[in-house]
Amino acid sequence: MDELPKIVFWLSKIGREGKNLSGITTNGRKAREAVEMLARRGLVETRKLGRTIYVKPTRKGLIALAEIERLEKIVSGPENPWLEIIADRARRRMGLEG
Questions:
Q1: Could you tell me which of 80, 3, 72 has the C-alpha nearest to residue 43?
Q2: Which of 35, 38, 51, 57 has a CA 20 to 30 Å removed from the CA of 94?
């Protein structure tokens, strides 16, 4: 899958909250191509508000973003391992992690 690095890049650039088309990149053609590629895979949805096109991740896109963030965390490692341990314990105590 040659497009996987592109998918990861553009999905990370859009983020969880979404952006307007010009917020992704100022190159309109490249932004449209990226959004079309992500939309074909069901990772983003677009809304047109007047002349502005707004791009927002779908549920599938949010799951992919969570996996990308998890991978980044594994690759970079925790900045402070003790904070990571405390956060994991707190998440388990609150029932947020299984």
A1: 3
A2: 57
pTM value is 0.73
The mean pLDDT value of the chain amounts to 89
Domains of the chain by residue range: 4-94
Average pLDDT for residues 19-45, to the nearest whole number? 94
**Overall fold of domain 4-94:** Arc Repressor Mutant, subunit A (1.10.10)
pLDDT tens digit sequence for 51-66: 999 999 999 999 999 9
Could you give the CA distance from residue 65 to residue 61 in angstroms, rounded to a whole number? 6
Residues 79, 84: Cα–Cα separation, whole Å = 8
What is the side-by-side order of every strand in the sheet holding 52-57? 19-20, 52-57, 44-49
